[in-house]
Amino acid sequence: MKHIKPYILIVLLMLSVSFFGQHNSESIRFPDGRTISIENLNTYIQKVMDSIELPGLSIAIVNDNKIAYQNTFGVKSIKTKEPVTKKTIFEGASLSKPLFAYFLMKMAENDQLDLDLPIFPYLEAVFPKGTVVEESLEDYKNLTPRIILSHGSGIPNWVKGEPIKIAFKPGTDFSYSGEAYQHLGAAFALKQGIDWGAKLDSLFIKEAALPIGMDRTLYTWDAKYENNVAKGHIKGKVNPEINRYKRVGPGFSVHTNAEDYAMFLIEMMNPKNITIATRDEMLKEHNHFKDGNKLIKETGQTGWGLGFAQKTTPYGLMHLHTGNNQDFQAYTMFIPNQNYGFAMFANSDNLFPFLEKLEQLIGEHF
Question: Which letter, b or e, does each residue of 283-319 get, where b requires 16 or more Cβ atoms within 10 Å of its Cβ?
């Protein structure tokens, strides 16, 4: 240092101050045009979490097809007090669905699936008698991936072991159904000649997750995550059990975190692993809600693509999805023409009250 001329030291000092000043004043852009500093966002999030006793949170925001903000807050368990970190994974609940839809779109692009051919021929050999009530069997036999991915099957959300009764002619109305996604996942696995456990998950990881940078996302359990998984909470009490899923649950079983899921949102807005045409097909409205659908009144949503719900906003068409496994909740949205995305995961049953309070700072997101 003693050999460096004084004026060079002054320049270096100015550059250092400039660099760190820029870093400390970094801000996030939101769809309505407002910008908020990372410092203020962190402070506000922690304040809201404390006010409603939200145990743990993983959150990420995409600006201009890059992760502009990623952070974790709170604890994995209120009993152990272990902090949530970037390595912590959460149950994604129904955020499983759009990600599995993306996987199947990739498989369709690879000619491994036809979106408009019925899935029943692949299930028929293992289809127990009585799975579907007799009067609904012909409708069931006409179910296709496109109909199921856009929630047009007419199958209830979950039948819980009861025979399936289809509410309307498939493809003519909307009925949100995790059950239908399960049947689609099983049919696709059988078509590939594999089980719908670890082998199907491995195919998903190879073809969909890893190519877009999701290296902490899986549908079936892997023991290597045993010490890096959040515990669920209901009404302030911790659930000590971990759901170590042995079969892929396309509608509910994904484990992931906000940073990983943000990579998926980037892929949706700036596709690299699928073609733009495939992405456009996925995001196109395939099931427009009829007048009187309660989601129109309750949320402003207008229809469904192949995986995501859709909502018109003043800032562009929003694609969104909620997730609720009771002791874990999650939410994601993105607006392609804003190059903006948002994802968050919580290990409790009070994420949505948190989101309502967060919207007071960052603007409408749901």
Answer: beebbebeeeeebeeeeebbbbbbbbbbbeeebebbb
